[in-house]
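Milestone M4 deliverable, item 7.
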Amino acid sequence: MSLRQRIKQDLIRALKQKEPGRVSILRFVLAEIKNLEIDQNRQELDDQDLIKVLNSQVKKLSESLELFTKGRRQDLIFQTQAEIKILKEYLPEQISDEELEKRVSEILAQNPAVTRPGAIIGLVIKQLGNQAEGSKVAQIVSRKITRLS
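Output delivered:
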């Protein structure tokens, strides 16, 4: 079953079970997907593109969560945390920080000629795909490069 079908089925299930929070975020994601398809001349997105949309939404919600925390808006904090949790159900499992550090070290060892942080980050993301957040990769790469300098 494709990721889109899974989201639609979960939306229907949430409607039947009267889960307004889940219904709201799933409808929003489906609308975002549809808007992106319209922008791309009605080409249907594959699962990898859908994962990018979901990652983008999680990132936006995480940024909002930081602002709500600074503003001490408990009602919005709980709602945003719930939405992030729902969206993460559809994303591939992320590798642990320890595993990510190990992979970054391996890539650095395999590519000693590559010294620019951006290039190393690109190599790591290319190899890991959606298994690690770009910001986490950048953080670990910069820390490793600093140690090597």
